[in-house]
Amino acid sequence: MCGITGWISFNRDLARRRDVVDAMTQTMACRGPDASGTWISGPAALGHRRLAVIDLQGGVQPMSVRTPEGEVVLVYSGEAYNYTELREELRRAGEQFETSSDTEVVLRGYLRWGEGVAARLNGMFAFAIWDDRTRKLVMIRDRMGIKPLYVYPTSDGVLFGSEPKAILANPLAPRAVDADGLREMLAFVKTPGHAVWSGMREVEPGTILTVDVDGVHERHYWRLETRPHEDDRDETVAQVRALLEDIVRRQLVADVPRCVLLSGGLDSSTITALSARQLAADGERVRTFAVDFVGQTEHFHADAVRPTPDTPYVHDVATHVGSEHADIVLDHGTLADPDIRRKVVTARDLPTGMGDMDASLYLLCKAIRERSTVALSGESADEIFGGYRQFHDPRVQRAHAYPWIALDEMRFDAADTILHPDVRWKLDLAAYRRDTYERAIAEVGHLPSESDLESRMRISSYLHLTRFVRYLLDRKDRLSMAVGLEVRVPFCDHRLVEYVYNTPWALKTYDGREKSLLRGAVRDLLPESVLQRVKSPYPSTQDWHYALDLQMQARDLLDQPGHPAFDLVDRNWLDAAGRRDPRAIGVADRQGLEWTLNLATWLEIYRPRLVL
């Protein structure tokens, strides 16, 4: 896992701009704490920061191969889980290898198959290849968008990077955000290709981008497609289990310590149990980590979103599989610490609305990194198997809107009220959500035999897999890589995604509950308590002192009337929210406080020019 960046300028000799390339590369030191490297030749400059995971000595980058026609150079981020099979195939075809790294497999795969290497890879990856033979740059991103990759077209080429901060370190990229960028930032929708920053684009998942003297060219090598499902229930359950066992086996490969993020839910418990079984065969014991909050289990209050605390279920699973387990317990002061907020905002390059959930994930990853370098996570199982409440609410099933927004329209409408009235009117977030929704559902393919319910549930699944999960994957990548922790997401294996996406909704809910297929596939692996547990999302602190901390910081912000945050935020709303009883403050107000403080921090760090 690493950070990559680069600059292609067909009208310049970039050897004279090494200082800029070094600055772009340095912005991603946290993504790659183990090594740094740059390569510059004529119009091409590539930078790399390395987190060593496989072949610790041999996988140094940028990696290049000299051919009679010119040099081919790669900067690569991620993991190719099928690299051993591909290496053998390439060896049989005549390729010779100097390292045992997956990076060299990708490079020599490109030499043999060209851009066709993308379709052969199983994994999470974002990489760029400068091919001096044809004087072009080739950028490729994984199918699900697990690894980030951004581009900024210039008058004579492009800038690119794993994160916007790498691009923004180049003086050619202004720090500006226009109205459409603000809409994307606030709408809680991940529009493919949208990067928020003006002029910048996100390379879409499953896409190959090439850059030559004639400009930027784009093509998809993978899309989420609709296909008939022929297997019966028993065959489907068995196939899900077989896929999961193969996926986890592949994703446990590493030359560094590994662990699993465990929440006590069905998803992470499945990954834990499969990992424990496979590691035990090699005489190893799985490590697990969970986040908790001071006093949360003892004083937990059930609500419609979180009916149960995580910790008792976490401990049930840890005992059941015999893991080496650690709880990372956080208090309200740490979660609200302005220094932690700055680290989170810097990691994400944007002010986010996930507040203490972002802070706790960052702190969890930071604690894990002291003992492990690679962690497996249960991310995306809810999107694939239909685990969220919105999948099962008849009102939401019939709604003509993003399901996660339709489930709780009042909360999203309330979030809009934190904006200054003039800004609220200019942005019209409701219209933006409607427009992007219409464009999204137009992409969905349907089968002639689908019932109305099946058709609506296919749309819901598609939206979650192409608009919702990408937001969560970006969050997981940024906050884990901010501390140099590689997080792998087995449920995002494209084979599993394709198979379950095309499984009829009736099969996905065959026992009348959420995630029937997953539960049926791993029933023999987990304790009964977890098998029967109702879905509970990522935990959030219930300590009212956290809300009080936010209010005190909001009052400090109100004492700075000239702060640029008030170009966007309604001062009257913030003043009222800061005076409410912290013991009874609502979810929308607490999230509004979190977002406002994040916004203020972002404006202080990045100093963007806002164009409304």
Q: In terms of topology, how is this protein built?
A:
Blueprint: E1 2-9, H1 18-26, E2 35-41, E3 44-50, E4 63-67, E5 70-80, H2 83-92, H3 102-113, H4 117-120, E6 123-131, E7 136-141, E8 150-154, E9 157-161, H5 164-168, E10 176-178, H6 179-186, E11 201-202, E12 207-212, E13 215-220, H7 233-251, E14 258-261, H8 266-280, E15 287-293, H9 311-321, E16 324-330, H10 332-335, H11 338-348, H12 355-369, E17 374-376, H13 381-385, H14 389-392, H15 394-398, H16 403-406, H17 409-416, H18 421-427, H19 429-441, H20 452-481, E18 486-488, H21 494-501, H22 505-508, H23 516-521, H24 528-531, H25 544-558, H26 571-579, H27 587-606, E19 609-611
Parallel strand pairs: 10-19, 14-15, 14-17, 15-16, 17-18
Antiparallel strand pairs: 1-3, 1-9, 2-3, 4-5, 5-6, 6-7, 7-12, 8-9, 8-11, 12-13
What do you see in this structure?
The chain has 3 domains: 219 residues, Glutamine Phosphoribosylpyrophosphate, subunit 1, domain 1; 299 residues, 3-Layer(aba) Sandwich (Rossmann fold), CATH 3.40.50; 64 residues, no CATH class. It is 43% helix and 17% strand. A 6-stranded antiparallel sheet has the order 2-3-1-9-8-11. The longest helix is centred in the C-terminal third of the chain and has 30 residues. The radius of gyration is 24 Å and the shape is globular. The mean pLDDT is 95.
